[in-house]
Amino acid sequence: GHLYRLKMVFKEPIILFLLWAAIASGMMYAVYLSTFHERKFWFSNRQDLEREISFQADSGLYYYYYKKMLQAGSIQEGLFELMHDNKTLSMRTLNSVQQIHLYPEVFASILYRVTGSQEVIDPVYFYIGIIFGLQAVYVTALYITSWMLSGTWMAGMLTVVWYIINRTDTTRVEYAIPLRENWALPYFALEVAALTSYLKININSTMEMFSYLLMSASTFAFIMMWEISHYVLFVQAISLFLVDCLDLVQTRKVTDVYRMYLVCLGLGYFLQFRNSALLASPLLSFLGASQLAKYIQQNLKNGHFVVRLMKLLLHFYLVFTVALTLNLVIKVSRIVQGSFLIVCTFSPFIDRDFNTNLLLCQETFQSPSQDFFIRLTHTCLLPFCVTALLICLFSTFEVVFKKFCDGSLENTMIGQRPEVVYHMFHTVLFGSLALMFQGLKYLWTPYACMFTAFGVCAPQLWLTVFKWFRLKTIPPVFLALMLSTAVPTIIGFSMWRDFFPEVMDELSELQEFYDTDTVELMNWIRKQTPTAAVLAGSMQLMGTVKLCTGRTVTTHPLYSDKDLRKRTEEIYQVYSRRSAEDIYMILTSYKTNYVVVEEGICNEMGPVKGCRVKDLLDVANGHSLHCEDGDTDTNHPFSVFGRFCHEIKLDYSPYVNYFTRVYWNRSYHVYKVNTLISFQY
């Protein structure tokens, strides 16, 4: 009794200290990001145009809409302009909030107005500050999750250290601030932390309710912030499903989480203008299938080992078969951006057209390089992560086997804790996806840092290993406590010695980011083209043009529907082997006044032949590949025309009849699309 009262006296101060340490770690990371960003871009010393150019491609388009919301006379007027946007794409009116998923920008602009920040801070610093603040929340949530799993503050600190030194593979916020994932993943980290607390066996009712409410709020925010969030939640739902099937968690808790998913999907569907992608979500189909299968198999968790195993296999088959069937039945014909990305990535049956191949050729959708594994091994993350996963996996199998056979369990086994088993499945599933596609490493690596820190610092995990080896010379409990402190301390000092000087050098080094050619191009467009002019060019460049000049463009980086994908393919024909007349007809069909030809695309010498834009166009148009490179593809016919972006620079007929060069520098050539065609020979 005295020990229990003493423990309760010290419990609250310890928890407060750990929360303070977690919040302090997050704030320090936000300060680090801010300092690194300033050193990299010299942001405070730049003019507005130079600052805006640092937001490139889709990042530039996101920031453009934030700026547009602030330029409106009121919040209502700004929302109306975004929902009836006829100044972004030529010949088209968009609901930009819905189609480009601008909820983060709407939220940030409203917050900027209602907090009266206009007289305190520049809009760009406010925008960046929110995202850096969210990254602080991200790191804090990872710290708390690791602490809850391991029971020690050292796991939280080790998580933060691993996250920072592996930042190349944990986040893209350093060079693409406005990306949707940078807005959304902090909320997902909060949701995972709340779920970890909710799954605990010994949680009291008050903490359980608080965890459930926090989980619900963060899940809703996650769905609103990122158009592909429901796919991430689908993987999480599978992890919970596996824990439930192994009878390691109360079924009531999993059912309540599934209900929360349904409510958040429903709210997201209506608040996102009846977003059809949420109806076609595999998460929705999976939730329906799991509940239907559970209703059919009432006695799933009864019977001896063989019977339960057979029931479990049948349950897996039933759930995933019904889920696939439901998803096919409720599939809507209209494909939005998130669906397009996922379908292109995972469906072997989709037609490989230009847009699909352009997407799949991006680095994000390539398999991770060898450097990725070398980096994680160099920081000791990968070997310790694999070791912790294997220990938890074997312990879980042992627990399940004993539970299915006679129900006898030892309280010291790590594999009987539902929150640990959930994180094991979470890490394995997202890790499997990261092995397939490099872009998904940003979903896996942060949680690998957290799970590995838990594995190194958790006395219970060490105790599980020692009981397997049946140590008798040294008490296993004492040895587990000693190693769970000594090993992370050694790892921490080793990383401090190897990586802390490198981090400090990055913060002290002044880097130079100045794209002279792009700055000159934007200044020329601002001064020499009419306000109502329509410009055509690559998706990435048009995002920058829209942000920096406000001119109407023919396409943009966030091509989220069939019409935009068609526009993209047609505008990119300026890099194909098509006639001047064909290109002229395409451009005039979109009311184009100026077309920008980029040297970087026209003369691209990519490392992978077949993935350059001009290669993809040749394939889509049925032309032979690489004939100008001396590596000719004889399986397709030659085009009678030269590559347009090369031929137009030679200034001979018929190109000069349709186009007039009005500006050029080392990187860009701008041609005016002639309205009156004069044929000169």
Short summary of the structure?
The chain is mainly alpha-helical. The chain has helices at residues 2-41, 48-53, 58-71, 75-83, 96-99, 103-114, 123-150, 153-165, 167-170, 180-199, 205-225, 229-245, 251-271, 276-279, 282-296, 305-329, 337-346, 354-360, 370-378, 381-405, 418-436, 441-457, 459-469, 476-508, 516-528, 539-549, 562-571, 580-589, 599-602, 613-621, 644-647, 655-658; strands at 534-536, 552-553, 594-598, 659-664, 668-673.
Q: How is this structure best described in words?
A:
- The protein is mainly alpha-helical.
- Among the domains are: 314 residues, no CATH class; 158 residues, Rossmann fold (3-Layer(aba) Sandwich).
- The chain is 66% helix and 3% strand.
- It is built from 32 helices and five strands.
- A five-stranded mixed beta sheet has the order 2-1-3-5-4.
- α26 links the parallel β1 and β2.
- α21 packs antiparallel against α22.
- The radius of gyration is 28 Å and the shape is globular.
Keywords summarizing the entry:
single chain, 681 residues, mainly alpha, Rossmann fold, five-stranded mixed sheet, 32 helices, 3% strand, globular
Rg to the nearest angstrom?
28 Å
Query: Which regions are unreliable across 5 or more consecutive residues at pLDDT < 50?
Result: 6-10, 332-338
Alpha-carbon distance between the two ends: 103 Å
Shape descriptor reads globular
Beta-strand segment tally: 5
Question: Total helix count?
Answer: 32
Category by helix and strand content: mainly alpha
